[in-house]
Amino acid sequence: MEKRLVSMLGEKDHGKSTLIGQLLILTGSTTEERVAEVRKANKGKRFEPAFILDSFSEEREQEMTIETTRADVIYKGNVFELIDVPGHLELIKNMISGASNAEMAILLVSAKPGEKFQPQTKRHIYLAKLLGVESLIVAINKMDTVKYDRSKYEAMEREVRDYLGLIGFDRRVDYIPISAYDGENLVKRSSKMPWYRGSTMIELLERTLEAEIRSHKPDGKLRILVQDSIETDRGLGHFGVVYSGSIELSKKVRVEPSGATATVSGLYLKGKPVKKAGRGSSIVFAVKGSAKVSRGDIVYDPDVEVKASNSFGCRVFLIKEFDTKSKDAVIKVNNIELHVESLVPDEVVSPVTAESLEFGRVLEPNNSVVGKIRIKERYPLESFQSFKEFGRFALYSGHEFVGLGIVE
Amino acid sequence: MIEQDLNKLEEKSIYLIREANAKFKKIGMLWSMGKDSTTMVSLVRKAFLGKVPFPVIHIDNGIDFPETYKFRDDLVKKWNMKLIVAKSRIQPEMTGFSCCGSNKTVALKKLMDEEGFDAIIVSIRRDEHGIRSKERYMSLRDKDFKWNYKDQKAELWNNYTTKTDRGEHIRIHPLLDWNEIDIWNYIMRYKVPLNPLYFSKEGQRFRSLGCTHCTNAIKSNAKTVEQIVDELRGTKEEERAGRQQDKEKAYIMEKLRALGYM
After folding, report:
1. I need a surface site. Which of A170, B9, B15, B162 has the fewest CB within 10 A?
2. pLDDT at position B248, please?
């Protein structure tokens, strides 16, 4: 069984929750009792598949999603954990929290006259690219409101395609016409759109999953993030997470930012001594030699070409305004805090139009900043391209989350 | 019911527990002696090579089951834990929502003020209840214990909220990703000691454990962990079907959590 997180993207009311609800029903991923319950509660009114999701009971009164919610769609032994996110502009930090771990995304764009391809939808796509979404399914929704007209679909598809080209979206993209409310093209091929010869939504999810498994990179060189150190019965031990590669007893390693080398002399997994531990493991390890190891350090195979530095090229999406001369700005990388000396923009770009904007000392929210970030301490960041887990950060001003960025 | 990769779940939980330990000054861990928080204690022991570095907290309203008290005292000895009992006073006229709200929450608040905890580990899971699925791994509570769920802090790429202002605290949720069946698979794999009330006696057992006033048993013949796992694989009934507080009104859990309930 494979399980994948799939983030929903798109403007409010373009049908994200309805699509999840309908997929849950059509794949039998929810119980009949649950469906009957929703029908009963909604007696006399139009049946709303969106209400299938438990959590929406708390949000029904306002008829909008406030916080992210997850629901498992089970199909032919695979599980797609669909993450619903709020579409509102002011709730974008909740959208980011929900979508940040997903490698797949479904973008909903409504074909309904008057609803169109909105600026907020464009921001979601832009963020999806920044967040590292590897594949996107673009669903042109509400085809029932335009009589399943092929030319309407094609015009919409072209508009999205143009935008993706504009921002240089270089990941896997599929397009599909659907009606989430009527269940058209979700699990069965729609008889109302015989002109569409592509796959159904659920087939697209399956194929995307397969493509993703095929393209999975080998594990690569060792990278361990050190969380903490403790005194054990056998001396000093370090807590760490293996982000890539594997660690073995007697292996030679290099520690950054100090650059010191050491030899692994002890290794524990789930409380028990082991000889080797691989990617994803939460380990305890000890080293021989004079190298000091402490929280925030990264341990590598000696031949990994990553060196600590205090200046990096970056692309930052701001969700709050940001003073480039701020004295209390920090970035966090895997919960390790690094103090920001300065953020120097070369360019500020609108994610909606991809145009360069004028800027001053205080940067406006909802734009993307390309420039250089300087930190007070040296740290081994990598480019997002080469190793994304160590090439992305959250930006704070004091306690407040103000944006997210990647190293370029 | 979806069974997930137990190894991945364990590693992530251990990571979160250690991350919390590195970032907070004083952590307490709620332990109701139920299956989830006992699994939690077992994971903490793995994270710290057999030790439990935080005190475990029992919020005791005096009306837990006798089996629960015995189980507590036996395991505290066996696993060498520091137990703090926070007594809460039961008010006979109250039930469900007002009872849980006034007793347990008030008792915890008092204890946290006395002990100066800046974070507590709570064993909730996303699949338990709609509103719980909106929690972060590390969720902020204000000085009145309120959860401002409409304006939560962002949480992305393993970056968590770990700073608090005076009087605020963080709820740490290392089991958030787990499903009910994963807990049972874990208990089965590692033979975790368990409160005997979970096992069938005279055709009944408890699937979710609260106090004697508000928890009802379900019909079941499952007498072993293996039988419980088999039973769950076939069930369509919801886990908390026997819990009074969840039934009163659709939004009751939301209210309870906003007020600081676990």
Report:
1. A170
2. 42
